[in-house]
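Appendix B. One record, verbatim.
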Amino acid sequence: MSILSLITPAFGLFFWQTVLFLIVLFLLSKFAWAPIMSGIKEREQTIASALDAAEQAKKDMEQLKASNEALLQEAKVERERLLKEAHHQAAVLVEEAKSKATSEATRVLEDARKAIQTEKNAAIAEIKNQSASLALEIAERIIKKELANQDAQRQLVDEYMKEVNVN
């Protein structure tokens, strides 16, 4: 046996190997090749649809993110507008309250002045009445005292007559 015979196959062995290969190839193509290929195609379609779904989800997420950012910006603008409006309303309310308080204070002060003036006038009238009563009472006592004496009565009449002539 030479080394060359070990490397070169015999014709019978080669023939049977070729026949068996063709039978296995036929059986595989008849029974296994179609299911394997359909499985591979199905797997390719599943992967492609998953990639499409992932791409669509990515686009949807980008749109949602843009929409959320727009809503957030709109909410910020609305918040600023509401804050500005609230500050304005507060300033208006404070100004109205100050105005009402000032007018109320002015009205109360004017009412107090009128009441004081009324009380003052009443007090002055009362003092005048009391002064007149007191003057009458004093005059009455003086006249009673003066008229009790006959000489004093004549002297008083003379004095009055002189005053009347002078005026």
